[in-house]
Amino acid sequence: SKNILSQLTGIKLITHPKNLGKSQALLSGLLASRGKIIVFVDSDLVNFTPDHLHRLIKPILDGYDMSIGDIRHKILFFFQTSGYSAFCSGQRAFKKQILKKNLDTFSPSSYIDGLLVEIKMNQKYFGRKKIAKVLLDGVETSYKISKAGISGLLNDYRVMCRILKYLGPKEELRQLKFVRQLPYLSN
């Protein structure tokens, strides 16, 4: 990714000397940003367009504190019906001031790593901030099973177990219920 991004003009590429994980990469981007709206998007998306970016940003412009992009195209049925597709989504937009007041969200502690940073965001903001859910139709993500077969599926399972261990069943169910009950905003 670094080699590809370093060839683009009009962007500021921020890197760490060694891999510090997703949460620290997001924090570095946040701290280097100059805008009032922050958008996080996973790097493995397919068919993500400027229109999808606009869908994430528009709720923030309309007064929401956070928006979550839900990818439902070509994903496992369980992820669609359970709410996991939005619950774990890395596609999010925020008012910068909210993130700046909650920098501990990006803590590299043993409880939160790059795989759980979105879960920590849910924990901090669900039920406390005005949140929108937007459908990112046509966007696809690469699930580990498609990248690595059975070992990828096992890795997805391990991540789900880590989330459950971190949150506990009651909090995980609360978050899933919250995100499922959010209506999709029309675009």
Describe this structure in words.
With 187 residues, the protein is α+β, with helices and mostly antiparallel strands. The protein is 47% helix and 12% strand. The strands form 2 sheets. The chain has a 4-stranded mixed sheet. A two-stranded antiparallel sheet has the order 2-6. It is globular, with a radius of gyration of 16 Å. 26% of the residues are buried. The mean pLDDT is 86.
Strand and helix layout:
Layout: H1 2-5, H2 22-32, E1 37-40, E2 45-46, H3 50-61, E3 66-70, H4 77-82, H5 84-87, E4 92-95, H6 96-100, H7 117-125, E5 131-135, E6 140-141, H8 144-167, H9 169-181
Parallel strand pairs: 3-5
Antiparallel strand pairs: 1-4, 2-6, 3-4
Helix proportion of residues, in percent? 40-55%
What ranges have pLDDT less than 50 throughout 5 or more consecutive residues? none
The biggest beta sheet reads:
4 strands, mixed
What would you call the shape? Answer: globular
How far is the first residue's CA from the last residue's CA?
Answer: 31 Å
| Count of alpha and pi helical runs | 9
Spatial arrangement of strands, main beta sheet: 1-4-3-5
Please state the CA-atom Rg, rounded to the nearest Å. 16 Å
Strand content: 5-15%
Number of strands: 6
Mean pLDDT: 86
Order of helices and strands: HHEEHEHHEHHEEHH
Query: Structural class of the helix and strand makeup?
Result: alpha+beta
